[in-house]
Every structure is written in structure tokens, then in C-alpha cells.
Amino acid sequence: QALKFKILIKNKKVGTIEEGMLRRHLDRHGETGEISDFENMSDEDETDEKAPLYPKSDSSKRKSDQKPSSPPRKKAKMKKIKIAIALSDLVIYTKSQKFVSFEHSLANQKCYENNSIGEVRAQKFVKISAKEFVSHTSRFITRIYPKGTRTNSSNYNPQEFWNVGCQMVALNFQTPGVPMELQNGKFLDNGRCGYILKPEFLRNRNSTFTPHNVGRYSKPISLSIRLISGHQLPPSNLSKTNKADPLVQVEIYGVPEDQAKKKSSVIKSNALSPRWNETFSFTIQVPELALIRFCVKDEISLVANEFLGQYTLPLLSLSKGYRNVPLLSKDGDNLEAASLFVHVWYY
């Protein structure tokens, strides 16, 4: 509540918060301070990544004499960084602190210090240290960022990091696709204000929750979605008239046990008012973390579909009864008049 309508500045900081508070009413314009930092070192060891720097489509163009192994890492050197005192003093709740290990953070990290962890390292932690990861994010703000080899600005699936309580899951916003649709859908909750309260089991420091073993934190619900019809679905790029062959995919994103995908039949040559009358049933163990995505596609062939529109929202924001589901374009724009008509029930 105290942080409503405030902006949090995340940066490195000179000295302590207490020293900054004492300087608050002094004019420190133009003054700088020095902090120590490691040179040529990100928070993620890039040599751990097995991903090539080239897109797969270009792999045939690689020179045969090129060595596949990564160059040896340079030894990290300490260097001094200058930072404006005025900027440093604006950093209060979100001081950047290099991540060493969960044990190190537990013993040494202050509540106002936060870490950035690269996606490859974070994915390893999700697999082998999920309980410690959840414990860490219950104490400290944790940011995940895309690996450096994503030179085409592609994105990872943010859901696996939300599942362990990471607060700042950074994506390449310039790249549309499922990860950005999940991001936009997640923050439909709480009136799109930008802050969402994590479930209690991700805030409790004594929690034993992990995404792979939800245990006593499971509050399963049975969800039934009856897909009744579509209304003015967007035309296919391959069709001048509205003669697409639409199908609908209903997808659940959440903890691994809840991941599910169900597909409707194809309605031939009718995107204006297709009727399906099909029911999809799901059992969801951790509804607090689940998102539901409705995706409409045009069947071009038995092996290829063209995206027409989608809508993603938190499962617990889904209201029961007869509902109109609006559709959004790849860029997240509203597709006027296009919608699905469904009946939602869960218990």
C-alpha cells in the first residue's frame, strides 16, 4: 500500500541507505561516488549455454573449419564505476546486488537488495533447487533476463519463473508471440495496475512449495469450457473473402502438472459464424498460477495453421457462465467485432 503511485529506481548504489537518508536535504548536484564492479562479466556464465549464436536456418552457412567450442572466459577484473550521488540516493528499495548463491544471499543480503539472474542459470535452479529458489524470492526481489545469444530478440516462456515467485521476468517487448501474450494476460489481473500479489505459498518464508511437487498447496479445480461459436473471426491472409477454416486451441499454462492443450474440430470455409458446440475439460492443481489462452487458427493444411487471434487471461479471472471472449491480434491490438462465445464452469 505504501508504494502505490511511486516509482522504484533500480540501480547500483554508493554506500548504505542510511547514509543516503542523511544526505537527503543537501545539494549534491554534480557530485559522484565510486563503486567496485566486475569487468566483462554478466550475471550469467555464457559458456554454460549450448545455444549457437547463429539462427538454425543459417547453420548450413557456417564455415567447416570453425571451432564449435566456446572461447575460454577471461578472468574477471575488478573495476571502479563512477555513479552520480543524486542518482545513487534515489535507489532505496531496489539496490542491484550481484547474485552469488542462495546460501550467500540468505546469510548476507539485505531486504532492499535485489538480484538479476540470467535465464539459463535460472532454468537450472528451477530444475535442481526449486525449493531454495522459492525461499529466495519470498525474501528478495529477483529479476530474470534473456540470455545474450538471443540476438533475434526471441523470448523464453516466463511462466516457469513466475512459478517460483520471480517478481521481474524481463522479456523482449518488441517481439510478439506466446511469451508476450502470457505477459499481457498475466497483468490483466488487478486492473492492469502493474502490481500483482503473489499467492500466499510464494510469499511465506516457510513454504515448501515447488512447481514440480505442489503437495499440500494443491487446491484442484475442475474446469469445463464449452466452445459454442465464433463471431466475425478475422480473415486469413490467404483468403480475400472470409473463407478461413477456423479451429480453436484452448491452452493452460501453469505448473508442469497443469500444462495442457486441447483442440477443436475444423469448421470449413466459415469464419463469419462458425459453430462448434464442443466441450473441453481440465483438472488444474494450482489455479492461482494458471493462465488460460484461447487461440484461433486457420487450417491451411494438415500440418500447417495460420494464427488468426488469441486471448489470454489468469484462470481465476475467468467468470462462470456464458461469456464473450474478445480476440487480439499478434501485436496485442483488439480485433474489433471478432470474438468467441463460450460457456465456462468450474468447481
Automatic annotation (TrEMBL):
**Catalyzed reaction equations:** a 1,2-diacyl-sn-glycero-3-phospho-(1D-myo-inositol-4,5-bisphosphate) + H2O = 1D-myo-inositol 1,4,5-trisphosphate + a 1,2-diacyl-sn-glycerol + H(+)
The protein's Enzyme Commission number? 3.1.4.11
Q: Where is the signal peptide?
A: none
Per the record, which residues fall in region Disordered?
19-78
What Gene Ontology molecular-function terms does this entry list?
A: phosphatidylinositol-4,5-bisphosphate phospholipase C activity
Q: Where is the composition biased (Basic and acidic residues)?
A: 20-32
- Calcium: present as a keyword of the record? yes
How is this protein annotated for GO cellular component? nucleus
Question: Which keywords has UniProt assigned to this entry?
Answer: Calcium, Hydrolase, Lipid degradation, Lipid metabolism
| PANTHER family recorded | 1-PHOSPHATIDYLINOSITOL 4,5-BISPHOSPHATE PHOSPHODIESTERASE ZETA-1 (PTHR10336:SF29), PHOSPHOINOSITIDE-SPECIFIC PHOSPHOLIPASE C FAMILY PROTEIN (PTHR10336)
Protein name stated in the entry = Phosphoinositide phospholipase C
The protein's organism comes out as Grus americana
A Pfam family annotated for this UniProt entry: PI-PLC-Y
The protein's required cofactor(s) are namely: Ca(2+)
- In this protein, which residues make up the domain named C2? 203-329
Q: Tell me the ranges covered by the PI-PLC Y-box domain, including all copies.
A: 87-203
Q: What class of enzyme is it?
A: hydrolase
Acidic residues biased stretches: 34-48
A Gene Ontology biological process annotation?
Answer: positive regulation of cytosolic calcium ion concentration involved in egg activation
The reply on keyword Membrane is no
